[in-house]
Amino acid sequence: MPAAAPVTTPVPTPGSASRSPWRSLRHTGMRWWSAANFLSNAGTWMQLTVQNLLVLQITGSAAATGLSVSVQAAPALFISVLGGAAVDRWPRRTTVAVSQALLGAVAFTTALLVALDRLDLTGLLLLAAVTGVVATVDGPACALLGNDLVPAEDLPSAIGVGALVHSAGRLVGTALAGVTVGFLGTASAYAANGVSFLFVASVVPFLRPVRDTRSDRDSAPKAPEPAPQAPDLSVREGLAFFARRPRLVALACVSAISSVFGRNYGLTLAVLVTGPLAAGAGAFGTVSAVLAAGGIVGAVLGGRLRRPSVRLVGVLAAAGGLLQAVAGLSPSLLVLLVLVLPMAVVETVSDTAMTAVLQTDPPVHLRGRVLGIWGSIGTVWSLGGPPLLGLLMETAGARGALVGGGLLIAGTIATGFAVRVRRPFATVLIRPRDGDAPLTPALETAA
Question: 87 and 143 in contact (C-beta within 8 Å)?
């Protein structure tokens, strides 16, 4: 594979700045990275499609299937902050290459044990735990490496392209899983996933960032500096930064209330469709297809953003809450289908804006830890949200959960905006590190 030459991008003027959702693909490194991620996503979804069947085949227990998922998710809950600190400390491209190679080794090991019929529940849980631990480093490292391949103004486009790559990989991987297993057996799905990880690892050395980043220390030699001061790469500094950063705390609050009282449409809409609307499982499949189509449209629209802000995330989340409340009152399946499309679009654009803020707001030397903290927060809500929502549905019913949850989301965010206007946050100066802009105000970009 020929080395991708560094790409230099002129600073766009406001009048000539491109708003194309595909503008990030003009950079050679981003094109290679997107292709590698497509193959990796397809391999991962191929494996995930057969993994639950494998657990059932080994144990015959549905509870064991849930246990394997929990074991793999547990590291993200407890040690994501440590993984983020490792990403801040180690060279980024090397970190991604090594983590991808390790994930590939786990996939190949699983494939071999399955092929030899030597995999039991203990071994499966151990491999799932190892995968979860490596993912706490691989996740933020891959996200930040993708950032380095495009200038800051193209980051929303890169995130939107990534969402489309994820969706396309999911569709292809799920479709190939049945064919692959049918002709080659279950082990082949794990082996294919291992190959996809190794492909990503082989592409990484050829990637070149379009802008200098301090954390990717192996990308370019550094000029000698008199009496350099070692940056504080401790976990505590990352936690303290996050806690003192009003915009990040606000994002966490928006994410929390949206995750608990909204978004879990696979649960709420399934009950609404099969219950009050008296439709069947096939009707819910149609709703799911419309949600997926809305997600694709939202990813394209999100890629057109240039300066996402916390305010935009909040407005979109509140709008999504109001749409959810209206959807809860749908008198028919047709009305529900009309509403779920903009619900999915708004949710995806909001997620794109939120991800862009998370990956650009912190100083370079803190971004890995911020993403690690966010990984722990997201795991808490992904594990705790559905049970809480299920309890609300048992109390208020599907319509009550959708309407009440949507209004609560919109009302809470509106209250937050009102408090923010009456009591504006004070500007906090961030202590500079090597490679960061000196005396960066905490609220320098649009709040």
Answer: no
Question: Partners of 430 in the beta sheet?
Answer: 440
User: How many CB atoms are located within 10 Å of the residue 297 CB?
Assistant: 15
Residue with tokens 């983590």: 99
Mean pLDDT, rounded, of the chain: 83
How is residue 154 annotated by DSSP?
G
The residues, any chain, with a CB within 8 Å of residue 69's CB and separated by 6 or more, are: none
Q: Tell me how far apart the alpha carbons of residues 440 and 84 are, in angstroms, rounded to a whole number.
A: 22
Q: List the structure tokens of 170.
A: 């999911």
Q: What pairing do the DSSP bridges indicate for beta strands 429-430 and 440-441?
A: antiparallel
Confidence of residue 211 (pLDDT cuts 50, 70, 90): low
Asked if 127 and 106 touch (Cβ cutoff 8 Å), the reply is: yes
User: If we measure between CA atoms, which residue out of 368, 379, 384 comes closest to residue 433?
Assistant: 368
Placement of tokens 């449209």 in the chain: 297
Question: Considering Cα of 170, then 175, then 178, then 179, what sign does the dihedral take?
Answer: negative
Is a pLDDT exceeding 70 seen at residue 445?
A: no
- In the numeric block, the tokens 């691989």 are attached to 138
Burial class, 230, CB count within 10 angstroms (exposed 0-12 / middle 13-18 / buried 19+) = exposed
Q: What is the pLDDT of residues 395-420, one digit of tens each?
A: 898 899 999 999 999 999 999 999 87
CA distance 338 to 423: 39
The residue among 361, 382, 384, 380 whose CA lies nearest residue 371 is 361
CB atoms within 10 A of CB 243: 12
pLDDT, one tens digit per residue, over 340-357 is 999 999 999 999 999 999
